[in-house]
């Protein structure tokens, strides 16, 4: 017997309820696997980090799985690992996400652990110090990573005047070294709560069982002081090309990150912009940019473009890893492609290729529980409606080459962008 | 749960192509894999990296599918494709919505024989691969692995990295690449696997249609340079710019077909955390080495690895030294813990837990067709697809006494190579752009 044609998740098989305290719960049953995934977020991220305390939300999130009122570190991980389950919590800018997985019969325990971690962490002094050293080591490793360093520099250049997107979610060695237990406890007490929280459960579980588990473990959660996310200041557009570079001794390759701020996921031209980005630096071997930088000139193993989106104006950037001698030429080629995508309509064929990929890839994206959960999180996060995937094909098909051009022009400018470079010392780094 | 995957059909075509087919009807997708029995294991000095470069050239066009066209064909139908080169194999895959799977067979049958190796494309790809290597060189761990492996394997070709030595990447010719391609890319040196939403008879007809007429080639030359026994611990020290120290210990380990391999797999799980074919996403915070090194605040992280290889390879431990700590004290703690295990300090409880973890990971590993198809092809290469299918049963058959005995025999200092990455000061500095 063959599988049915792709069964898109929709109102007919996804159940959504909002608990009185504000938590949105989405459930989709899938009985052909033995496992279940639990994904979601709480509405607290690094946007709440006070100035000079970058990394606080991230540190708090990392502490949640290190001891609760009912379970110490050993008990948490002994249970997870013995049952082959996993549960990770980590902070982003707008929210702190969690991702768990277990065999279906262990779901009650997984939800119990999730509630314990989010609601009842203890922040033991011993675990704080243990984590601190690990985070400091991790940040130091990243400070030697050319792509990370270039990306961080890029953010500082694009999101100026203290815009929160300029700050590193993970903090710096300086900030992470100084958080006190009181700061961590207070941050958790003040910011964690059920409002705007979402939980998505997908797998071998009955819908009513899933709802009941969430209600039992989260239904009585309240935090009347839970703050609304701070409003984002406007991003000041760059008027020219701004260049900065950091030299990292001993490296072989330079990483180049260039671009600007792009649309938020809520922007009306979001879909057209992602199609423009797909043609610019994704389709096939990294789109038009890859065709020139990698395929034609052989200058880079990777050179692609990426549009982050998100609840705010995330970056729209091109990334390339090249020999330091090729930085200037690479930048010049990328600039040509920025000019082309903002001045000429893309061809009908290019647009059809990208649209066809967007629509055709759904079966692969929705093959696994994780894939379905990811799609549902996206639907909830951006309030796309449970019928979003059913409408998706029509929405993509409707985008025109004129709309793609307009979107590219709206955000990209071949003569005004931030150019960040990190790599070994080389004259050519001064482009 | 191991019985879930007993429905593999194995057929050998007249030209020698091994075909493994497994129906999975949970989603309307199919993954198609072509694995060639060639990797860095088959390379000689002067041609290191040739297998990986050949893999790149198979994306650079045939008469039928000129360079750059296949990406579009695959992506238009919403599929993904890629390739990987390793020590023992080079593998290509396409995962596609089920109704488009014939495209994968058509592409793979064509490039088994008709890849052009256009000289201009060879030159353009030379710099891409050099760039790939330079990107890897930006990571301290790359240098540590490269240097340590080179010391662990003096004779066997496992001694060089899959990407190849820079000297060879600069000097290899189009003819070197093409000769390698013609020697190893034959149906009788290949394994084809499909897993997903199809009917076996229909798929087999498609396989015969596309691959049945490709003539077999001469049997490729065997790998003859076995690694001689090791007499005494070997050590390596890499000093480069950086700000974090790393420590690697690699113990001589048996080939995947050796019954001892499964004993070491359990020891790896107990020491450094659970792993199983296709599984990932489970932590190692209750493993012995995490407790001994990370919880004691000597290390920031630790991981273990036992790679199922054709020839004897390594059981390895990799440690990221915690900021402010020194490799000496980390090494001391690592050695003490490993010696406890070698002295018989593993309990039945730990063994049972390792098996339970493997079972859960194995279940997760069967939830996507791409991973399943890979493991069938991969295990058929070094042993037989039944190696993968019987994985949990093989673990279940290992006794505590056997684990103790294996720990004693394999975890000996004289049988290991230890490498340290010692950072020398590297302050970053912003320069005027």
What does this structure look like?
The complex is a heterodimer of chains A (431) and B (433). By secondary structure, chain A is α+β, with helices and mostly antiparallel strands. Chain A folds into two domains: 14-218, Metalloenzyme, LuxS/M16 peptidase-like (Cytochrome Bc1 Complex, Chain A, domain 1, 2-Layer Sandwich), CATH 3.30.830; 242-429, Metalloenzyme, LuxS/M16 peptidase-like (Cytochrome Bc1 Complex, Chain A, domain 1, 2-Layer Sandwich), CATH 3.30.830. Chain A has helices at 56-63, 73-82, 107-119, 125-142, 146-158, 173-178, 181-191, 207-218, 270-281, 283-296, 327-343, 348-360, 362-365, 369-381, 388-397, 401-411; strands at residues 14-18, 24-29, 35-42, 86-91, 96-103, 198-203, 242-247, 254-261, 300-307, 315-322, 418-423. In chain A, the strands form two sheets. Chain A has a six-stranded mixed sheet with strand order 1-2-6-3-5-4, with helices on both faces. In chain A, strands 7-11-8-10-9 form a five-stranded mixed sheet, with helices on both faces. In chain A, strand 9 (300-307) and strand 10 (315-322) form a beta hairpin. In chain A, helix 1 packs across helix 7 (181-191). The termini of chain A are far apart. The mean pLDDT of chain A is 95. Chain B has 433 residues and is of the alpha+beta class. Chain B folds into two domains: 2-211, Cytochrome Bc1 Complex, Chain A, domain 1; 234-424, 2-Layer Sandwich (Cytochrome Bc1 Complex, Chain A, domain 1). The relative contact order of chain B is 0.17. Classes of the chains: A alpha+beta (431), B alpha+beta (433). At the A-B interface, helix 2, helix 4, strand 7, helix 10 and strand 9 of A face helix 2, strand 5, helix 4, helix 12 and strand 12 of B. Strand 7 (242-247) of chain A pairs antiparallel with strand 12 of chain B, so a sheet runs across the interface.
């Amino acid at each position: 017997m063959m599988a049915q044609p792709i069964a898109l998740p929709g109102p007919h098989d996804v159940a959504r309820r909002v608990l009185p305290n504000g938590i949105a719960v989405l459930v989709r049953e899938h009985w052909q696997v033995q496992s279940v995934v639990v994904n979601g977020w709480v509405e607290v991220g690094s946007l709440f980090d006070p100035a000079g305390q970058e990394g606080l939300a991230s540190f708090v999130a990392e502490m949640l799985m290190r001891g609760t009122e009912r379970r110490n570190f050993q008990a948490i991980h002994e249970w997870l690992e013995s049952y082959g389950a996993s549960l990770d919590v980590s902070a982003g800018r707008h929210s702190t996400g969690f991702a768990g997985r277990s065999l279906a019969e262990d779901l009650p325990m997984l939800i119990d652990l999730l509630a314990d971690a989010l609601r009842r962490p203890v922040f033991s002094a011993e675990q704080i110090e243990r984590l601190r050293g690990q985070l400091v080591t991790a940040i130091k490793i990243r400070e030697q990573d050319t792509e990370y360093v270039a990306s961080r520099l890029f953010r500082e250049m694009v999101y100026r005047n203290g815009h929160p997107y300029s700050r590193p979610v993970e903090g710096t060695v300086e900030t992470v070294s100084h958080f006190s237990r009181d700061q961590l406890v207070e941050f958790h007490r003040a910011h964690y709560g059920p409002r705007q929280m979402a939980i998505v459960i997908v797998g071998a579980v009955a819908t009513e069982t899933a709802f009941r588990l969430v209600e039992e473990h989260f239904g009585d959660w309240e935090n009347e002081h839970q703050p609304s996310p701070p409003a984002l200041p406007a991003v000041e557009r760059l008027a020219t090309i701004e260049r900065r570079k950091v030299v990292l001794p001993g490296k072989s390759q330079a990483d180049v990150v260039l671009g600007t701020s792009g649309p938020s996921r809520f922007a009306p031209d979001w879909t057209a912009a992602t199609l423009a980005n797909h043609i610019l630096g994704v389709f096939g071997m990294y789109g038009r940019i890859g065709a020139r930088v990698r395929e034609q000139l052989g200058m880079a193993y990777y050179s692609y473009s990426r549009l982050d989106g998100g609840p705010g104006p995330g970056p729209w950037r091109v990334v390339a890893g090249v020999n330091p001698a090729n930085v200037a030429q690479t930048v010049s080629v990328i600039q040509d492609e920025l000019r082309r995508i903002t001045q000429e309509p893309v061809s009908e064929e290019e647009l059809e290729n990208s649209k066809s990929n967007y629509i055709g890839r759904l079966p692969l994206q929705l093959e696994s529980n994780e894939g379905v959960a990811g799609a549902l999180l996206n639907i909830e996060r951006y309030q796309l409606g449970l019928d979003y995937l059913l409408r998706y094909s029509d929405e993509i098909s409707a985008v025109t080459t004129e709309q793609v051009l307009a979107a590219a022009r709206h955000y990209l400018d071949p003569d005004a962008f931030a150019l960040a470079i990190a790599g070994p010392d080389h004259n050519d780094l001064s482009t | 749960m191991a019985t879930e995957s007993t429905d593999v059909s194995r057929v050998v075509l007249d030209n020698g192509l091994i075909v493994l087919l497994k129906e999975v009807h949970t989603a309307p997708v199919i993954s198609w894999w072509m694995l060639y029995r060639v990797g860095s294991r088959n390379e000689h000095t002067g041609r290191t990296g040739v297998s990986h470069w050949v893999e790149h050239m198979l994306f650079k066009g045939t008469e039928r599918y000129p360079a750059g066209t296949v990406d579009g064909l695959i992506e238009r139908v919403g599929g993904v494709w890629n390739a990987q080169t390793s020590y023992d194999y080079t593998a290509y895959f396409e995962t596609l919505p089920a109704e488009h799977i014939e495209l994968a067979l058509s592409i793979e049958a064509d490039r088994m024989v008709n890849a052009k190796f256009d000289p201009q494309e060879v030159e353009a790809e030379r710099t891409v691969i050099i760039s790939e290597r330079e990107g890897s060189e930006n990571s301290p761990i790359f240098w540590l692995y490269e240097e340590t492996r080179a010391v662990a394997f003096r004779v066997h070709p496992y001694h060089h990295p899959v990407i190849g030595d820079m000297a060879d990447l600069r000097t290899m010719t189009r003819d070197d690449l093409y000769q390698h391609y013609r020697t190893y890319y034959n149906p009788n040196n290949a394994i084809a696997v499909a897993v997903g939403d199809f009917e076996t008879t229909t798929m087999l007809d498609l396989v015969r249609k596309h691959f049945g007429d490709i003539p077999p080639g001469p049997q490729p030359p065997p790998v003859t340079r076995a690694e001689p026994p090791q007499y005494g611990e070997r050590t390596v020290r890499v000093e480069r710019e950086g700000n974090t120290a790393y420590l690697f210990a690699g113990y001589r380990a048996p080939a995947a077909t050796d019954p001892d391999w499964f004993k070491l797999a359990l020891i790896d799980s107990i020491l450094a955390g659970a792993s199983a074919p296709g599984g990932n996403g489970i932590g190692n915070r209750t493993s012995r080495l995490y407790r001994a090194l990370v919880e004691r605040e000597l290390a920031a992280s630790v991981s273990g690895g036992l790679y199922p290889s054709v020839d004897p390879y390594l059981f390895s431990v990799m440690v990221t030294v915690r900021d402010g700590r020194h490799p000496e004290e980390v090494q001391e703690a690592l050695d003490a813990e490993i010696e406890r295990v070698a002295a018989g300090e593993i309990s039945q409880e730990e063994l049972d837990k390792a098996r339970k973890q493997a079972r859960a990971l194995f279940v997760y590993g069967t939830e996507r067709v791409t991973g399943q198809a890979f493991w069938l092809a991969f295990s058929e290469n070094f042993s037989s697809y039944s190696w993968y299918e019987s994985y949990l049963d093989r673990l279940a058959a290992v006794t505590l006494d056997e684990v103790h005995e294996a720990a004693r025999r394999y975890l000996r200092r004289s049988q290991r190579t230890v490498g340290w990455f010692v950072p020398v000061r590297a302050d970053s500095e912003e320069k005027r752009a």
